Every structure is written in structure tokens, then in C-alpha cells.
């Protein structure tokens, strides 16, 4: 995998490109590892709610091979990230973790989704020291980074977050259904 691949939310082919790319990355590991989608964030901040909204949307789909942690009902955030990782590692053998989180960035990158084959460091915008997580990471840039990141996260447009959440959750769902179909037809 390339170090970082970026998708723009306004690309009319984003679902096709995103889901195909994700399928190509997850299919090789899906035959021997559980794929865990770890959706990080809190429902108490609009800008930081991207992960829990994606988790909520994915859980509602009831796809057999889709394992999700972090929803609006049970968010994974700074206070429980370590214990959630401990639970995952003690209940799944060698899980492949796809970490999903919101991110602040440059104004021209708002609405971009990036996938990297590296872990992410959640809480960086709030200067929190949390464990890096993910064999693969998906981040959505929800707003601009600046000297008052906490205030920026609080005042992020819900439309931006929901638009990113729709694209990411739909892309993941398509990818996981593609993986299931490919293994069921063998």
C-alpha cells in the first residue's frame, strides 16, 4: 500500500474508488485475521463525532464479517481507548485494526478522507497522549487546525461531519460486502 492515499468527498466516484481501494487492502488479511473497525471520538463534540457516527451507521447494517467498536451509544474516546484495545486484543487473535478518526487540517483539505498503512495518534489535536492505534487508518478532515483546536472542534459544521461519515461508512460497507461475496463464491 502507498503510505497515504487521499480521497476528496466531492469526487462523484468517491464510493467506487474508496471501496475498491479498501477492498484491495483488506481482502488479503480477511482470510486469516478478524478485521476490527475502531471508530474513535466522542458524541459530545461535533467535530470529534465522526468516528462514533460512522460506528453507529456500520452497526445498523448487520453485515456478518463487520466488527465495530465505537458508536454513538458506546463511543471509544480518550478515557476508554486503552481498555478497549485491551478488550480487543484479549478477545481476538491477531486482529487487523482499522482505526477511524476525525482530523483537523488545512482549509483546502476539509472534506478529504485519507487512508494510511500506519497507526494514528488519537487526541493529538487536544495534546492528549494516547496509544497509537491501527494497522490501517482512515481519517476525515472535518475542519481547520489552529491555535484553538478545542473551539474549532466544538464549532465544526455537522453537515461536513455527516457527509464524511456517509461516504466512509458506505465505502466500508461496500468493501466488506465485496470481501464476503468473494469468499462465499469460492
From TrEMBL:
Task: Please indicate which superkingdom the organism of origin belongs to.
Answer: Bacteria
InterPro entries linked to this entry: Pept_HybD-like_dom_sf, YyaC
| Listed Pfam families | DUF1256
- NCBIfam families for this protein: spore_YyaC
- What name does this protein carry? Uncharacterized protein
Amino acid at each position: 500500500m502507498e503510505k497515504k492515499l487521499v480521497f476528496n468527498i466531492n469526487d462523484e466516484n468517491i464510493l467506487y474508488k474508496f471501496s475498491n481501494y479498501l477492498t484491495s487492502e483488506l481482502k488479503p488479511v480477511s482470510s486469516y485475521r478478524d478485521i476490527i473497525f475502531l471508530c474513535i471520538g466522542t458524541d459530545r463534540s461535533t467535530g470529534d463525532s465522526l468516528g462514533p457516527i460512522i460506528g453507529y451507521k456500520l452497526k445498523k447494517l448487520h453485515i456478518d464479517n463487520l466488527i465495530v467498536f465505537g458508536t454513538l451509544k458506546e463511543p471509544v474516546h480518550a478515557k476508554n481507548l486503552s481498555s478497549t484495545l485491551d478488550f480487543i486484543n484479549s478477545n481476538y487473535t491477531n486482529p487487523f485494526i482499522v482505526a477511524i478518526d476525525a482530523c483537523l487540517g488545512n482549509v483546502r483539505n476539509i472534506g478529504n478522507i485519507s487512508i494510511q498503512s500506519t497507526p494514528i495518534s488519537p487526541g493529538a489535536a487536544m495534546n492528549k497522549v494516547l496509544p497509537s492505534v491501527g494497522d490501517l487508518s482512515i481519517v476525515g478532515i472535518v475542519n481547520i487546525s489552529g491555535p484553538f483546536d478545542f473551539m474549532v472542534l466544538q464549532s465544526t459544521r455537522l453537515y461536513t461531519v455527516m457527509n464524511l461519515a456517509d461516504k466512509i461508512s458506505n465505502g466500508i460497507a461496500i468493501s466488506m460486502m465485496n470481501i464476503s461475496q468473494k469468499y462465499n463464491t469460492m
